[in-house]
Amino acid sequence: MKLLFAAAMPLVAAACAPLAPLDTSSGLVMVADTASPVSTLQAGPAITYRSRSVQEPGNWTDLNNAQGPGVE
């Protein structure tokens, strides 16, 4: 019980402490610049589609070596 009280007391004291005031400098609360040009075009796809045909499983060691760093 003493250990629980010793562990909980700092947590309760920290929870009851007042928060520090927020920084309201002009750089943090300034409205976004509406004069800058904004693109309305949609971004392209993040990935590309590559069609692959179904085939028999190959040698995994060769596949891993081909995809890994330092490809020969």
Provide the fold topology.
Elements: H1 2-16, H2 26-29, H3 60-67
Plain-language structure description:
The protein contains three helices and no strands. The mean pLDDT is 79. The protein is an all-alpha fold and 72 residues long. It has one domain. Residues 1-17 form the signal peptide. Residues 53-72 are annotated as: Disordered. Keywords: Signal.
Give me some keywords for this one:
mainly alpha, 72 residues, 3 helices, flat, 38% helix
Q: Helical percent range?
A: 25-40%
| N-end to C-end Cα span | 65 Å
Number of helices: 3
Proportion of beta-strand residues: under 5%
| Average pLDDT level | 79
Number of strands: 0
Number of domains: 1
Signal peptide: 1-17
Keywords: Signal
Region (Disordered): 53-72
Summarize the structure.
Keywords: Signal. This protein is mainly alpha-helical and 72 residues long.
